[in-house]
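Worked example

This section walks through a single chain of length 456. The input is the sequence exactly as stored; nothing has been trimmed or padded.
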Amino acid sequence: MGSIEKRHLIECNKLSGEFYFNSILQEAYTCGLLDESDLENIQLQCIRLLAHKSEQYNMGKSSSIRVEVAESIMKSNLYTIGLYLKSLPNPDIAADELKIKNADVFEMYERGRKILHTKFQTAKHLYHLVQKSKLDTINHSYNATLSENGIRIFFKAYNLDYGAYDCPASIDYQLCNPVDDLGGVEFIQKYLEQLYLENEFCKNFDAEHIHYLLYGYDKGYKDLLINIFEQVLTASLVCALADRNIRQLSIMQEDLRSLNEKLMKTEHHILMLNIHQKIEDIYEVLNITSSSLQKYIERSLLRIKSNIKNALELNTLDKVFIIPVNSNLEPKIQFESGVKMYDKAYRELVDELLACRYSFDKLKLIKQKVKSFDDLEDLLLDILLEEKEFISLFDTLGDTEIAAMIKRHPFESDIQAVDLSEAEQTVQLHLKNYVRQLPGYRQQLILNIANHLVWD
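Given that input, the structure is written out below as tokens.
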């Protein structure tokens, strides 16, 4: 009987994780735990706290403050008080703290501020753990998020006193289980906790094997917004199902065919049971004993099981069960750029081209004097040809040279486009438009060449 939990008036699932203070006020009032006089008292105390913090913001020189700054400080105060209320055993107890007989907003803020500081320090520690367990990968969003200009910005820019609700960081990398309904330091802490668990799991595998797996998923995975952990966990599960070496993350074409036939005949609940058994095998092989990591893997399995179920229904298991590709064994086309011209000669050519009045003369000069691919690329960026001129010039190039230009200016990447200069974006746009107007068979040929092209 002692284990029976008391039912609370305020249901936790109706509360906002990000705007906890406002939501608990609303729910407590709805449930009759607070009345209008309680709300009025809270409101007046919050205004006094705002005046106090505004004076601190102005270092005691004035209580006057811009409206947007006052709004930001108020949001920060409410976020911090919300942290304290969230730390209480249950929402009903938190609501009792807000009643007129108990409510001391200044005290609640100070307690929340201590919690905020602790969470900030915890997040810093987690950040160092994530850096230590960082994966060796070429994926841009992963590396950018863990770079100096990614999450690290948070620890330099986060304002615990006047912007506690804010999350000043650049985070592109998507987790297998996205962090929802949290703001400020709570978001960062949760994000880092989960990323650390994902890293810890992936560290059980060679970086080379992960690379082959992701390359098999998509040769352009470097620029994709993919979650590495989800792909690695799925591949290890597939290896377990196919009785392959889990650490290799590798299955063959015949494994895929065999699994497809076998799983199509397996009843759904048997398949789910089998998956859970195989996950236990993975724990044993990889010596995963951390309960946090096991819980995270089991939470992630919901998504993976759904992917497998849908793939079986649509007969697209090959899109979920990836066959790795060793990029080193793929045929390569060596590309030589040619010898670049001297700087002085290049600058004279640029000046000459900029002075040209007619497109015909520009193209004639380029064809006469440019003998290397690198010089041609530089010119496209420096003189910014009109699109008609660009198309006329490209009509004189071979498929390999166009493929090389695509390799240098890939137009399938949304991530890279953000960092491109205006000139690079223009070249990319003209190039994309040019390739699109080519016949389909030639487009495919050029893209195939680009996939196998390597520079000397």
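What to look for: The CA atoms of residues 13 and 91 lie 11 Å apart.
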